[in-house]
Each structure stands twice: as structure tokens, then as C-alpha cells.
Design goal:
Blueprint lengths: L6 E4 L9 H16 L3 E4 L13 H12 L5 E2 L15 H13 L3 E4 L3 H13 L23 H9 L5 E4 L6 E6 L3 E6 L7 E3 L7 H11 L4 E5 L6 H11 L7 E5 L2 E2 L11 H5 L8 E4 L6 E4 L9 H9 L14 H7 L10 E2 L2 H14 L2 H14 L6 H11 L8 H6 L11 H7 L2 H13 L8 H15 L3 H13 L7 H8 L1 H14 L5
Parallel strand pairs: 1-2, 2-3, 9-10, 11-14
Antiparallel strand pairs: 4-5, 5-8, 6-7, 12-13
Helix pairs in contact: 1-10, 9-11, 12-13, 16-17, 16-18, 16-20, 17-19
The structure holds one RNA strand of 75 nucleotides.
RNA sequence: GGUCCGUUCGUCUAGGGGUUAGGACAGUAGAUUUUCAUUCUACCAACAGGGGUUCGAUUCCCCUACGGACUACCA
């Protein structure tokens, strides 16, 4: 077989926000494409007009861009095989369905929904293990295999509603080699006569998918495991269409499971478990009540895209080394489809958080400052870039998300109105208050406003007061920040500035009861 | 129910016929830190069960159990 260009595709349906499992599928496609020097395509599979959700397509594009997946060809980008949206390709599919009919591999079916229901009910009643429209049951249904030729023609000419179904052989083993699972064998009796063309003239996923993958010269189909059961059907389609020699290689990814219990991670789990299942925030409407809903997104929750990517890459894949931190480029270098595991993975909130902390700490203060500045701006607080950088600098070791900066660093901008009670009751007393007053008086004379300088001054002042620094330190922190814990105290004082610190010390001494 | 897929610490996983079954997250303890956090160190903790094959199986085979996906004119 000749080496052909590697072309992979990510093909979501615009039925809502792309979920995190979809992002991982896209990521693996992307990694393989880049690793092998191939192309990454994006195709929108919107053949179900009933499930179309406005905004979903834009969301998909934005989400992929945010995580850093670059599309080489496809929706939103263009390319030589367009259009890349199936609804716009509608006229292209019918000929292939016709080709299958002519070759005797497909047929017209005129059954109504009621007739289909009746058939299934009948089979169920007869305790047929797997009720389906197949090589046996099709003999009892109204289709071009059972109806006289002239009646079929009359129905067609008369504009009767019909679908085109694949004529799946009765006894045949269908096998294909999955890149992740090895040989997968399914007997054709387990496959039903799938609808290829719907009565609205749109192809179903199965037909559109195969036709488009063929036309777009896709070399590898990497998709979720939920597609594994229909893969044999797709193999049959390639065969009957005469495309078996260029059939793409399949790789079915293990599913992402709920963190608790079991079952695949679904869109609803996010709200239930308190973590996002979507890359970006999504504003939708409740299907039943019609009310506006908001679903959390990783981006809005403060996750860095590189952390999400690193985490997702390791859910079902690993490089075989002990390295865990990988940039996108490193992932591309290290990736191989053979190392994707077969078993499903539970989503681990702790691990994503850990990756996020790691990437947060690796960022420079200048990169992080905007997060604080944005929050400050929302609270109408003015702050210089320089000061913001200093603050995130002392804070980044202690937060998990950039969104936490504001909450944690509030006291740099607002004098405390409350003081941590435990510290006050344990550490605050008359001598301490007096010592802090002395420190407040000494501060303006500090020879050097640096963490070291203020610390020395503090120690000297305490010595003069006959106190050990340790007896007063906690009180100083509470007096200045209101909190019991925080970053290095003297760094904090420097950022606050001497005038502000003296002011706050005076307020604290005046406010807090110096009992005992 | 049927078909298919899967099963190593709580979680993500490495490994592989003979290993003290390795790492990471979480958890616990200690060190550092004026505090909290960070950091560092240590500890805890797993081959689903039963049959084979074999000198030897967690690793290969079979069965069972359990989990999952699919079973639409949805993708």
C-alpha cells in the first residue's frame, strides 16, 4: 500500500456546546496530524436539522482556538474540499445512495413511523432478542425489496415519503483493525439495515460520514468509543461504495467517565459535581422549560488552556516515560496512537487543578498581572501594572486559579474592616498594641523601604519594647491585612507602602480592644 | 435482553512469564516557613475471582463477575 498523506478530521455536531470529551478527541486528532506531518480538518456534521442549536458552531471554533488546536482545513478556514458543513453538502450525497441501490446494496423503504413501531412491538412480544430492521424483518416491511417494481415506481413518482436503507447481508463476518483495539469482529446479523437517506432528503451520519471522509481523503478516523458498534457498518459502506482500498484507519478512543459512580461523562455532570465539563461558558436554554441556562466553562473558571490540554492528553494516553508536564509541542513530539489505552478513564478534578497550579506558577508576573487588573477594573480600582505584578508575584504560589487573585489580594486595596478573631484573641494585648504604635511611628524613618529593611526595623523596635518579634508578628499581620495568613509579611508591607501601613496600624490600635 | 469493548493503588497510569509491581494526583506524617501556602522528605495504597498452560502467572488462554458503549429517519 502506498504511503498517503495523513489527514484527520474532527467532526462534531452543532447540537450544543462541545464537551470536554470532544475536546480530547479533537486534541488526539490534532496531535496525530502534527506528529505525522499531516492535516487537521474540521467538519460540521449538522445533518439533523431538528437538533441544530444556534451558536454551537461558533462555540466549537472558539473552544478549539482557545485550547490551541489549529485547524488546517475545514469550517471557518476553507480548503479544497469544501464546503465543510454537511447541510451545505446535501446535494452531494444522493448519488452515492443511488449508486448503492443500483448495485443492490441498498433499497427504498416506505414504512411509516407507526409501522416501524408496530414491527418492533411485534418482535418484542415474540421475544426476539434484538428487534431490528434487518435481513429477516425487511421481508415483512414495505420496501422496494418486497413491493412489486411498478408499485415502487408509482410510490416514488407519486412523491411518497421514503428512506434509503443499507441492505446488510444475512451471514457475513465484518472485521477491521482498530489502531487501539486490534481486530474487531462483528457478525452482520448484529447490524441492522441502517437508514442512509432520511425522508427529508438529508443523509444520516453513517452515509454522510463515509462519503465525506472519502471525498476529503481522510486517512485516520479517530473518534470516541461510542462509535465502535457502528464501525462495521461503516466498513460495509466503504466496501459497497468501492472505496475499501482507501478506507481510513480507525482508532476508537476510550470514553471519559464520571468522576463518581459510573457512566460516561455527560453534559449534566458539571453542575451536579461542581466542575466544568465545557471548555467555555455556554449560554443556552433549557429544553423543557425554555429558561435561559448558563453552564460553566474551564476558561471562565480560570483554567489555563495549557493545563487543560496537558491533563486531557494524559486521560487515556501516556508517553511511557515519567515526564508529566508537556507543552503542546512536546505532546506532538511524544504522541503515538499505539500508546492510547483501551480502558475508559474517570475524570479527576484534583489532577486538573494540580496541572493548573503548575502552569500558573510557571507564568511570569507580567503574564499574570492582567488577571488581577481585570478584576480590579470591575471593582473600579486603579492600580499600576507594576504594583499588580508585585502582587501576583507574591500571590501566585498560593492560588490555584488566576481568578483567585482578587479575592486573595483584596487587602492590598481595601483596609481591613474586620480582623481575624482567633489571632486577635490570642495575640492582641496592650503591650503588643503599644509596640505596634511604636513601629508605626518608626516606619516613616525607615532608612530603606524593602522587605529586609522593614524587617530589621521591626526587630529593632520590638527589642526596644522588650518583646520578641514572634510575639507581635501575627498581630502585625492582622492589623494590616485583617487576615491570619498570607504571603511574606514584610513583602506585603512594602507593596502596601509606608503611609498606608502606618495608617492601618493606627486604625487597628484604635479599633481593637487592648484587653489584658 | 442482544452485540461489542473493557478490568494494575481512591484516581490517572507504567510494567510484564521469575520485579521489594514503578511514577503522578489525592491522603497522612515530618522538615522548612513568624502564619498559611509553596518547596522538600517519608509513609499509605493495586494486579476483580476461578480454572487452565507452565518449573513458575499479575503478565498467555478460557470461564465467571463487574463496568461501559451501542441497540432511532441522533450524531
Amino acid at each position: 500500500m502506498t504511503e498517503r498523506e495523513v489527514r484527520v478530521r474532527f467532526a462534531p455536531s452543532p447540537t450544543g456546546p462541545l464537551h470536554i470529551g470532544g475536546v480530547r478527541t479533537a486534541l488526539y486528532n490534532y496531535l496525530l496530524a502534527r506528529k505525522l506531518g499531516g492535516k487537521m480538518l474540521l467538519r460540521i456534521e449538522d445533518t439533523d436539522q431538528n437538533r441544530f442549536v444556534p451558536g454551537a458552531e461558533e462555540y466549537i471554533l472558539e473552544a478549539l482556538a482557545w485550547v490551541g488546536i489549529v485547524i488546517d482545513e475545514g469550517q471557518g478556514v476553507g480548503g479544497p474540499h469544501g464546503p465543510y458543513k454537511q447541510s451545505e453538502r446535501k446535494p452531494m450525497y444522493k448519488q452515492y445512495a443511488d449508486q448503492l441501490i443500483e448495485a443492490g446494496h441498498a433499497y427504498y423503504a416506505f414504512d411509516t413511523a407507526e409501522e416501524l413501531d408496530a414491527m418492533r412491538a411485534r418482535l418484542q412480544a415474540a421475544k426476539v432478542p434484538n428487534p431490528q430492521y434487518n435481513s429477516i424483518t425487511r421481508a415483512q416491511m414495505r420496501n422496494s425489496l418486497t413491493l412489486p417494481e411498478d408499485e415502487v415506481k408509482a410510490l416514488l413518482d407519486g412523491g411518497a415519503q421514503y428512506v434509503i436503507r443499507l441492505k446488510v447481508p444475512r451471514k457475513e463476518e465484518v472485521r477491521f483493525q482498530d489502531l487501539i483495539r486490534g481486530w474487531v469482529v462483528v457478525h452482520s446479523s448484529a447490524i441492522d439495515d441502517k437508514v442512509l437517506m432520511k425522508s427529508d432528503g438529508m443523509p444520516t451520519y453513517h452515509l454522510a460520514n463515509i462519503v465525506d471522509d472519502h471525498l476529503m481523503e481522510i486517512s485516520h478516523v479517530i473518534r470516541g468509543e461510542e462509535w465502535l458498534p457502528s464501525a462495521p457498518l461503516h466498513v460495509l459502506l466503504y466496501r459497497y461504495l468501492g472505496w475499501e482500498s482507501t478506507m481510513p484507519q480507525f482508532a476508537h478512543l476510550p470514553l471519559l467517565l464520571k468522576p463518581d459512580g459510573t457512566g460516561k461523562l455527560s453534559k449534566r455532570d458539571g453542575d451536579r459535581l461542581g466542575f466544568p465539563v465545557f471548555p467555555l461558558e455556554w449560554h443556552g436554554t433549557d429544553a423543557e422549560t425554555g429558561e435561559a441556562t448558563v453552564s460553566r466553562g474551564y476558561r471562565e473558571d480560570g483554567y489555563l488552556p495549557e493545563a487543560l490540554v496537558n491533563f486531557l492528553a494524559f486521560l487515556g494516553w501516556n508517553p511511557g516515560t515519567q515526564q508529566e508536564i508537556f507543552s503542546m509541542d512536546e505532546l506532538i513530539q511524544a504522541f503515538s496512537i499505539e500508546r492510547v489505552s483501551k480502558s475508559p478513564a474517570k475524570f479527576d478534578q484534583n489532577k486538573v487543578k494540580w496541572f493548573n497550579e503548575h502552569y500558573l506558577r510557571a507564568k511570569s508576573n507580567a503574564e499574570l498581572a492582567p488577571y488581577l487588573l481585570t478584576a480590579l477594573h470591575e471593582h473600579a480600582i486603579v492600580c499600576s501594572q507594576e504594583k499588580a505584578e508585585q502582587i501576583v508575584g507574591v500571590m501566585k504560589e498560593r492560588v490555584s486559579f488566576p481568578n483567585d487573585f482578587w479575592q486573595e489580594a483584596k487587602y492590598f486595596f481595601q483596609a481591613p474592616t474586620e480582623y481575624d478573631e482567633t489571632v486577635v484573641s490570642k495575640k492582641w494585648n496592650a503591650p503588643v498594641a503599644a509596640a505596634l504604635t511604636a513601629y508605626a511611628e518608626a516606619l516613616p524613618t525607615a532608612p530603606e523601604v524593602s522587605a529586609e529593611g522593614l524587617k530589621t526595623l521591626f526587630n529593632d523596635t520590638m527589642a526596644a519594647q522588650g518583646l520578641k518579634p514572634g510575639q507581635v508578628l501575627q498581630a502585625l499581620r492582622v492589623a494590616v491585612t485583617g487576615a491570619a495568613a498570607g504571603p511574606d509579611l514584610f513583602e506585603t508591607l512594602v507593596i502596601l507602602g509606608v503611609p498606608e501601613v502606618t495608617e492601618r496600624l493606627r486604625t487597628a490600635v484604635a479599633t481593637l480592644p487592648a484587653a489584658a
